[in-house]
Amino acid sequence: MDTREKVVPVEQLATRLGGEGWLAVVGTFDPLTLGQAERLAALSGKGKSVLAVVEPGTGCLLPVEARAILVAALKSVQLVVVSEAAALPPNGQMEVVRDDAGERKRSAEFVEHVKERQGVR
Hints:
The protein has 121 residues and is an alpha/beta fold. The protein has four helices and five strands; from the N terminus they run E-H-E-H-E-H-E-E-H.
């Protein structure tokens, strides 16, 4: 499947979710790190399909569309939507998971890694 087909507008999300159980993982994914990819893979092993909710965020390194396509490339993610979590359609079978503190930490670690590799302090 073309990973771009996994990225759907929030308005079409309700029809794409179907009746199965979903786990909505919310974050900015800026940038998508190995830690986040491993977390998504671990969550996908819980018997639910994974919907990645890529929030626009502020001061991000990458455009939201690029982040959505990167997340969609992961085998463990079945659907991706660019949206604030609050705009998701109601779905009684969908559990919403977020890790804001972990996201900020992983992004900061990535920035520090890049600075170190470039000799910038």
